[in-house]
């Protein structure tokens, strides 16, 4: 389990360090501990009282995502997420978000490989309204062919604009497909175009009826409320939704041990600059051996996390081979994670030069590991980020959501800093040697081309969020 | 639809040409036409009377293969094929093949992505016995945990010896996974090791009960019998097997249009010599537009079919860049085919030299197409092969099997030479430009390494036949 924000936190580094310098202030916020409860129908409740402002963040996390789609229906989880805004017997199509907005709130939703999430931020006194609305659409969604077909065009347009018009998105989609050979993480969350085109009312409703149920969801409420208040409201709203007996998840095929490195090469006239990308198959927090995910997180911070990292220092500052280099660990999956690098060549240097330099740096790091000082700095940076994250109610709620939706616990979330503290330089050298392995890698090269005879009727790719 | 032997026929070229030279003789055999019939329970019968010798070839083709396996159960189709020799109420475990042998016959079975096939060759007077035995195991298979677990070890050993001990087999398995991103053809027929290890009695029996049924099979009998005799025998044996109402095939996800070329690089100390491989995604006879598959077949014969081909002539004979180069079109799939090339470097030339030369040759061929003379020679060669194939009862039976099991017809098989005749040099240039496309390709490079630090606990790969 993990807090997605950590992996996305590279850009926030400067801000985080600033907060860390004045640690006394936000440290108080660490007292914001989650309280759990379970309704009779199986809905799990997590309440994080946070009385700093009279607002609440309300999130429903369904334990179902793109990786649970039936074969040939890639995209149905995300498609259904769109359709969830189409109304019920009580709410007219499109009214959901308008009601939230009229009440001064904001709402949105997103789909990932493992979860589909609906969330609102409102003044605390509007929480009963939000809970009533969200509980209503948990089982009472009303759809017809026309609505479904119109929304399908919206999704197709979303795919075109976010993936098919972006060479780097196409490449990333193809790299994911090459990295996850058997596991459904290899298919894009938004779906392949040809499969989206074939989705219909029946597909959406079957997915909905099967997986949208109180016993397949977690309700997370962070904000100016007490556990007792949320419990009472939840009983009166979600509590009335019947448990679905047969929430039957499709088994997910697991990967065979990687046998050979793969390369994906995309030449595209729309590409701005040649770029280098690398992915390594890795476990996630949910599947890693004890302490390994924490060690990978720290390794990636040291190696390629921002402009103080070893790789940035060598490739960008000292050797001037690259104009940028970044690395990350995507660690929130139920089944797998991945380690990634991305770099752009500087001056006359080719992408091959960049790749060679990066591989040399990785080999050196595997051999030597980090220094104690580098490790301490990485730990401090993450812990500051953790503390800092508490300042955002949304970040706080999402931490618990990401962890719990793939099988983690409240304790996993709250003891993460402690587990991070335990990681040693030896642990890091060990995960470097174990996971930064050529055989388990996919390399992606993107080249701009001046002109091409092909029409580039490309397909493809990627993570999306409801627009 | 197609006759597998064609794609495997490269080696037989010399023999075929010899036969072609004396065409009058085997041409007579072209009169061997198939006759069809369907039992009430849905079993399709194809009888090919062939009275040249008092023997029959008896084959049952089930419309189910590795591409129909449930997610995470890769290998169960092939595993079940092994288990089919384990006995019924009437036949003791292991007795099936012994009975056939005692009666002077031979039997075997094989599993492909689209079909599972059981076949025997016996004296014609033993046909009633064979039909009784095969009809019995269509629904009455008896298995227990012990038998299943023992056989699983046999399959695991088969995988180890044929795939995991062979770098080229591992590479080929990885290339298939890279070529078929969404479609189940990307998983090896024998299964991934970790999934084979988890197969059990329940998996095998569920697959058996669901897919082994008269209404999901084709019976092909070629040999010294009449249609009336086979019909009568079939009614008395297979005719007593009940139709299974719910033969429900899992939908197979189709591929998105390929977006970028992929490369798989395997370095292995067990590899003998560096080799170059290339695959292109292509339609099969079953899915190609009219005439396209025939054109691809002819194109590959001209381009890389044996030692008279253009590529052999250029790369091996003239330029001495390669010591061998071969190409083929795998065309028998229900959903997709693929075009393949394989080459070894000569002398001081590197695999990169070979790749460049091959790509140059392909580009030139796309531009210029074949000459009329080259096309005629390729047609004559295939038609000779087709005629020659009739001399083998097994080849004859398999032709119909491969075509019919993926949805083709008897007419498709018998009119193939006519359709081949219609292909023009323009058709060939068109399919070359359409399918020999970088974007749709996977390149595989195999390099021997002197020593390696890694233990090479590789996984992987490939087509297999019951041992």
Rounded to the nearest angstrom, the radius of gyration of chain A is 23 Å
Parts with pLDDT < 50 across at least 5 consecutive residues of chain A: 1-30, 452-467
CATH architecture assignment of the largest domain in chain A? 2-Layer Sandwich
Please name the two chains that share the biggest interface, counting residues whose Cβ lies under 8 Å from a Cβ on the partner chain: A-B, 40 and 41 residues
Molecular structure report:
Chain A has 467 residues and is an alpha+beta fold. Chain A folds into two domains: 42-240, 2-Layer Sandwich (Cytochrome Bc1 Complex, Chain A, domain 1), CATH 3.30.830.10; 262-448, Cytochrome Bc1 Complex, Chain A, domain 1, CATH 3.30.830. Chain A contains 19 helices and eleven strands. In chain A, strands 1-2-6-3-5-4 form a six-stranded mixed sheet, sandwiched between helices. Chain A has a five-stranded mixed sheet with strand order 7-11-8-10-9, sandwiched between helices. In chain A, a hairpin with a 4-residue loop joins strand 4 (106-111) and strand 5. In chain A, helix 12 crosses helix 15, helix 12 crosses helix 19 and helix 14 packs across helix 19. The first copy, chain A, is globular and about 65 Å long. The two termini of chain A are 27 Å apart. Mean pLDDT of chain A is 90; it is low at 1-30 and 452-467. Strand 7 of chain A pairs antiparallel with strand 7 (262-268) of chain B, so a sheet runs across the interface.
């Amino acid at each position: 389990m993990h807090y997605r924000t950590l992996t996305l936190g590279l850009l926030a580094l400067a801000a985080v360090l600033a907060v860390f310098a004045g640690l006394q202030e936000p440290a108080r916020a660490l007292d914001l501990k989650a309280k759990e409860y379970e309704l009779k129908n199986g809905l799990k409740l997590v309440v994080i009282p946070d009385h700093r402002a009279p607002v609440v963040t309300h999130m429903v996390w369904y334990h179902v995502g793109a990786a649970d789609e039936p074969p040939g229906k890639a995209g149905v989880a995300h498609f259904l997420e769109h359709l969830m805004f189409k109304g019920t017997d009580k709410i007219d199509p499109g009214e959901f978000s308008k009601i939230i907005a009229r009440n001064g709130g904001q709402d949105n939703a997103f789909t990932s490989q493992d979860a589909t999430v609906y969330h609102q931020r409102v003044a605390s006194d509007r929480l009963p309204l939000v809970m009533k609305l969200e509980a209503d659409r948990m089982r009472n969604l009303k759809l017809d062919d026309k609505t479904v077909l119109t929304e399908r065009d919206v999704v197709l347009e979303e795919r075109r604009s976010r993936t098919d018009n972006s060479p780097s998105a196409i490449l990333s989609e193809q790299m994911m497909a090459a990295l996850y050979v058997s596991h459904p993480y290899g298919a894009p969350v938004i779906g392949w175009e040809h499969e989206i085109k074939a989705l219909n009312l029946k597909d959406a409703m079957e997915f909905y009826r099967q997986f949208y149920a109180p016993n397949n969801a977690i309700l997370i409420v962070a904000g100016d409320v007490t556990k007792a208040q949320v419990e009472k409201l939840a009983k009166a709203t979600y509590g009335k939704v019947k448990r679905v007996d047969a929430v039957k998840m499709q088994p997910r095929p697991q990967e065979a041990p990687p046998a050979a490195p793969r390369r994906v090469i995309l030449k595209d006239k729309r590409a701005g600059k040649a770029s280098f990308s690398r992915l390594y198959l890795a476990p996630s927090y949910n599947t890693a051996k004890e302490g390994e995910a924490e060690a990978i997180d720290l390794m990636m911070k040291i190696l390629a996390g921002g402009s103080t990292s070893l790789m940035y220092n060598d490739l960008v500052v000292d050797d001037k081979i690259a104009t940028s280099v970044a690395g990350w660990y995507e660690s929130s999956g139920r089944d797998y994670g991945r380690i990634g690098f991305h770099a752009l060549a500087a001056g006359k240097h080719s992408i091959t030069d960049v790749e060679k330099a990066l591989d040399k740096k990785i080999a050196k790091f595997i051999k030597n590991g980090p220094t104690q000082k580098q490790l301490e700095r990485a730990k401090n940076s993450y812990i500051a980020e953790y503390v800092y994250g508490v300042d955002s109610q949304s970040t706080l709620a999402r931490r618990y959501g990401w962890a719990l939706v793939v099988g983690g616990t409240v304790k996993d979330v709250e003891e993460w800093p402690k587990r991070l503290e335990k990681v040693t330089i030896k642990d890091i050298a060990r995960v470097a040697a174990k996971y930064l392995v050529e055989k388990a890698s996919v390399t992606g090269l993107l080249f701009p081309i001046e002109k091409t005879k092909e029409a580039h009727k490309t397909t493809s790719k990627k993570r999306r969020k409801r627009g």
